[in-house]
């Protein structure tokens, strides 16, 4: 058997002796040195500097540069050397199976970890005409003429989309049961949406409570019958089920059933001119439905729901959104010429497609999306960006570590600048309550800004001047306090939406538009307690908790009648004076006997006796309060027990072996 020896240098591909000897390596090196690139006598090559990742297995030539004091050594290594077992020129590449279906170079994901990025510590000022906003954000007259809420609603829900909903609803009802179609018209869809919006202001426990004879809403009853509403609710559709793509099909879309509505709403939202400052973040559509796309996000006002990626302005208006479905990184959602920079970065690329190019719009996002490749792409499209970033996404940047930053005062910051792919990028590390890193293409550390901070030692807020040692960089204040709060505005503005969540779950709230009814579980309890306190002396026994719950629902619906309707069954109230007289006549009577005589439930008798402080002891009903004689007996018994404790015990006596009696 032929003896085989392996040569390994750093992380290079392993080659046999025959493969190594077949290489075209002359005595004179191509770079002019007196030794070969693979020679052990080379004192300049550090094996740790020669790094190769799994992507080196592709048939592309990997170029690695190693610097020394006199020259730059450049070596080309082709990965097919270790696979073919024969000499292969570094300038040729054989077509393999791995590169047949590869996308073009414009769609490939750039690996910034391989790039030799040089960061220079400096304070950079971005100013001048290249960074001035040149777009137009004035509202058109068609929007300025809208004055009523119904007109704003009609601007987004036009007759075109409502007619589409009515047609698809009729089609689905016919497919489901041809004998009983819904026969829905556009006016029915308007009424259905109106009932949904109205019910979201004061959500009932059950939808049918809207048509209740006692605490129902007359406006809902006059608008649509309960049966017709439920038929529409069960048949409501937005797309043709018969044309749903198969799960194995490349055109499969998890949001196919609502895709027409999503596309149309995005189209109407994009018709509103964008402001200069835009932000991208996640938004939760709260729900308690059971669905595989429901997610949990602990940092959001609504923890459970469907996650949406939202592009919004600095005033909170949504210009574009998409629902997270797990298909965000699918190539079919990527257009020609758009790079693949990861799932999070691709979200920003899709949402920023309609942002006007080369007009210096400012885009803000957090560290989930930020990367060098994304910043370069946006800058090349004429969009400036800024956002927090994870430090492992900025390679070779020599920021101080957390241990070193602990020694620095609050407000310390440092900036590094680089020119990556002909794009100037600034990254700033700032120490506040925590260490925050920022990446931007239009703003840097200078100039500083004046901010308000709380001093724990002085127990008061302090304003830091621009020249102070703890003045934060402008980049931080621009990101945190001014513009990127579009999604936060959406979360707290109190937009009125129809929610399918049930009020029986604890810790839920309904934040409605100012002027409408606002309530949550804690406020409901407070209101019910107020009702109990106000009506606790009512003769009809209305202080019971279940009765108060019914009253509270009536009061929300505008019915302030506190009289209970007559109903069948045993009475739920007992006259306390009559009960006391029965006990005084016979102290040995049982609760069962009393319940049979008064024709009430035995449990009601027990609860009433507890209410009047009467209990059953020694086969007799006696009050809880002790008489003077009973108090004296108990006092004497306690004193006797205390005296017994002072007597000399047998274990306290020293016993010897000579004593017979102790």
UniProtKB/TrEMBL annotation:
Keyword set includes Disulfide bond: yes
Biased composition (Polar residues): 86-107
Gene3D superfamilies: Low-density Lipoprotein Receptor (4.10.400.10)
Domain PiggyBac transposable element-derived protein: 148-460
Alphabetically ordered keywords of this record: Disulfide bond
Disulfide feature: 532-547
Superkingdom of the source species: Eukaryota
Bias (Acidic residues) ranges: 27-43
Keyword Disulfide bond assigned: yes
Protein name: PiggyBac transposable element-derived protein 3
Phylogenetic lineage: Eukaryota, Metazoa, Ecdysozoa, Arthropoda, Chelicerata
